[in-house]
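Dear H.,

Thanks for agreeing to be a second pair of eyes. The structure we're designing against is below in token form, covering all 105 positions.
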């Protein structure tokens, strides 16, 4: 179950990272509130997952999910470049996440 909590925490991390773009420097109330709520939920779920997962593994996977999701959504939502090198690097992060999952059982 810890991996499920960790995956959900990672999804909420993506939510707050993308949400930051919509807050316009925290000057827009609704996007700002949603971003802060997403931050809180993400950290709470990470904390639950870390009850049983090693902190190094949990934190690395959490940030990896957030990094990959945010980079992909940046490409889709904000027309950020999808260069071959960038996609390879995203793939390497995914490989690292999977490697940590396999290494921890």
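And this is the sequence the design step returned. I haven't edited it by hand at all.
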């Amino acid at each position: 179950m810890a991996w499920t909590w960790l995956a959900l925490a990672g999804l909420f991390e993506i939510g707050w990272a993308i949400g930051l773009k919509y807050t316009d420097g925290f000057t827009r109330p609704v996007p700002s509130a949603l971003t802060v709520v997403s931050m809180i939920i993400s950290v709470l779920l990470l904390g639950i997952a870390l009850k049983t997962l090693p902190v190094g593994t949990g934190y690395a996977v959490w940030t990896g999910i957030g990094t990959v999701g945010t980079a992909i959504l940046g490409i889709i939502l904000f027309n950020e470049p999808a260069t071959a090198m960038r996609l390879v690097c995203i793939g390497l992060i995914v490989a690292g996440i999977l490697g940590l999952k396999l290494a921890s059982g």
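Two observations from my side: DSSP finds four helices and no strands in the chain. The two ends are 13 Å apart (CA to CA).

Warmly,
E.
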